[in-house]
C-alpha cells in the first residue's frame, strides 16, 4: 500500500530524492544505448530479412507501435506496484525483443522480426516514463530540473548507441550471426543492465514515497479525453504539434539509413548520421524548454515547425552521396522535433483541466506513438515508389495541419 505523502518519513523522502535522479540517469544512459543501437540498423535489417525496401520502414514502425501499446500497461503497473517494477519490466520486455530480433535475423523470419521489435519498444516506453519518475519524489522547486536531467541523460546513450553499429556488425560476424543482428546484442546487454540498475537501486520507490496515484479511481477514457483536448484551442494546437512533429521525424528518420545505404554508406557512417540526429532530439531539450518559457509555447512550436520544414527541404534535395547535407538535414529534424515536442507538450498540459491532465498526457503519448508508427509504415512504400525526395515531400504534407492551426491562432 502506498504511504500518504503527509505521513511519509522525511528521511525516506529525502533519500528517495537523492537516489532517484542518479539511478534514473544511469538507466537512461543504458537504455539509450540499447534503443539507439537498434534504431540505427533496424531499417537495414528489415530490408535484408524481407528482401523488400517497401517493408524496411516496418522495423521502426513496430518499435514505435510497441512502445505506444505498452505505455498504458506499464503505467498501470506503476500505479499498482510503483515505478521500480514498471520500469524494470519495460526494459525486460526490450531485452526479450532484442533476443527475438537476433533470432529472426538468423532464421530470416520477417514475422518474428516484427514481433521482436514490438517487444523492443518496451525499453522505449520505460525510457519515456523515467522522466515522470524523476518528478515523483522531487519538491516543486526541483521538479523541472530533475526531469530535464533525466531527459538530458538520454543523449549520452542515444548518441553512443548508433556509433556502436560498426563494432556490433563485426561482433555479430565473429559470432556467426548476420552483421546487422550484431548491434541488437548490444541492445540486449544494455537493457539487461538497465533493468538491473532500476530493480536493485531505485529504492525507496519514488512513486510509493510520493503517495502513489495522485487521483485513485476510474480514469477518463481515451475518447472522452480526446474530446476535452480537441475542444480547447490551445490544447488542440499542442496535441497536433506533438503528433505532427513525431510523425514527420519517424517517417524521415527510418528511411535515412536505407537512403544512405543505397548511396554506399558504411554502418559507421549511418551510425554517425543517426547519432547527430538523436543529439539534436535530446541534447537541446533544456534549450527548447527555456525558449518555451521565455519566448512562449506557440512561438517555440513555430520554431519547431520551421526547423522541420527546413530539414525536409535540405534532405529532399541532397543525394545519398552528399552525406554532409544529409547529416545537416537530420540535425535540423532532431531540433525541430525537440522544439515542437517540448512546447507542444507543455501547451497541452497547462491548457486542460487538472482532473484530466494525466489522462491527456497519456493520450498524447498514445496518439504520438500511433502517428509515428503510421508514418514509419508508409515511408517504406513511398521510398520504394518515388525515392527519398518523395518521402521528404510527403512528410511536408503532414506539416499542413499544424501550420493551419498556427495561422488561425495568429488571426485571433
TrEMBL record:
InterPro entries: MFS, MFS_dom, MFS_trans_sf. Pfam families: MFS_1. Keywords: Membrane, Transmembrane, Transmembrane helix. It is found in: Cell membrane. One of its GO terms (molecular function) is transmembrane transporter activity. It is a multi-pass membrane protein. The chain crosses the membrane at residues 21-46, 58-79, 91-120, 184-202, 237-258, 270-291, 298-318, 324-345, 366-384, 390-407. Residues 20-412 form the Major facilitator superfamily (MFS) profile domain. GO terms for cellular component: plasma membrane. It comes from the Bacteria. Its main location: membrane. This is Predicted arabinose efflux permease, MFS family.
Amino acid at each position: 500500500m502506498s504511504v500518504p505523502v503527509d505521513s511519509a518519513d522525511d528521511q525516506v523522502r529525502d533519500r528517495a530524492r537523492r537516489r532517484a535522479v542518479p539511478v534514473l540517469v544511469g538507466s537512461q544512459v543504458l537504455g539509450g544505448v540499447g534503443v539507439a543501437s537498434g534504431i540505427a540498423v533496424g531499417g537495414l535489417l528489415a530490408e535484408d530479412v524481407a528482401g523488400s525496401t517497401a517493408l524496411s520502414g516496418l522495423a521502426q514502425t513496430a518499435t514505435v507501435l510497441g512502445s505506444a501499446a505498452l505505455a498504458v500497461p506499464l503505467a498501470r503497473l506503476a500505479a499498482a506496484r510503483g515505478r521500480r517494477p514498471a520500469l524494470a519490466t519495460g526494459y525486460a520486455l526490450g531485452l526479450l525483443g532484442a533476443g527475438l530480433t537476433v533470432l529472426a535475423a538468423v532464421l530470416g523470419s520477417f514475422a518474428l522480426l516484427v514481433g521482436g521489435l514490438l517487444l523492443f519498444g518496451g525499453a522505449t516506453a520505460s525510457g519515456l516514463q523515467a522522466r515522470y519518475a524523476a518528478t515523483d519524489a522531487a519538491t516543486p522547486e526541483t521538479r523541472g530540473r530533475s526531469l530535464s536531467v533525466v531527459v538530458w541523460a538520454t543523449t549520452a546513450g542515444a548518441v553512443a548507441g548508433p556509433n556502436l553499429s560498426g563494432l556490433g556488425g563485426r561482433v555479430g560476424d565473429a559470432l556467426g550471426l548476420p552483421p546487422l543482428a550484431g548491434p541488437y546484442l548490444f541492445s540486449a546487454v544494455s537493457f539487461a543492465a538497465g533493468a538491473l540498475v532500476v530493480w536493485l537501486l531505485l529504492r525507496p520507490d519514488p512513486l510509493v514515497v510520493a503517495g502513489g496515484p495522485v487521483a485513485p479511481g476510474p480514469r477518463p477514457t481515451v475518447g472522452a479525453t480526446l474530446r476535452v483536448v480537441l475542444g480547447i484551442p490551445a490544447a488542440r494546437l499542442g496535441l497536433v504539434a506533438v503528433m505532427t512533429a513525431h510523425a514527420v521525424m519517424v517517417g524521415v528518420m527510418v528511411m535515412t539509413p536505407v537512403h544512405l545505404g543505397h548511396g554506399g554508406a558504411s554502418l559507421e557512417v549511418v551510425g554517425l548520421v543517426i547519432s547527430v540526429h538523436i543529439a539534436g532530439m535530446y541534447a537541446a531539450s533544456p534549450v527548447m524548454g527555456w525558449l518555451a518559457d521565455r519566448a512562449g509555447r506557440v512561438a517555440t512550436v513555430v520554431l519547431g515547425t520551421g526547423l522541420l520544414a527546413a530539414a525536409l527541404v535540405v534532405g529532399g534535395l541532397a543525394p545519398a552521396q552528399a552525406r554532409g547535407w544529409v547529416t545537416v538535414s537530420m540535425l535540423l529534424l532532431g531540433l525541430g522535433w525537440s522544439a515542437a515536442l517540448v512546447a507542444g507538450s507543455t501547451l497541452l498540459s497547462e491548457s486542460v483541466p487538472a482532473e484530466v491532465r494525466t489522462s491527456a498526457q497519456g493520450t498524447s503519448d498514445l496518439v504520438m506513438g500511433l502517428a509515428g508508427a503510421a508514418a514509419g509504415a508508409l515511408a517504406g512504400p513511398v521510398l520504394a515508389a518515388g525515392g527519398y525526395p518523395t518521402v521528404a515531400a510527403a512528410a511536408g504534407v503532414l506539416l499542413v495541419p499544424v501550420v493551419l492551426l498556427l495561422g488561425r491562432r495568429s488571426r485571433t
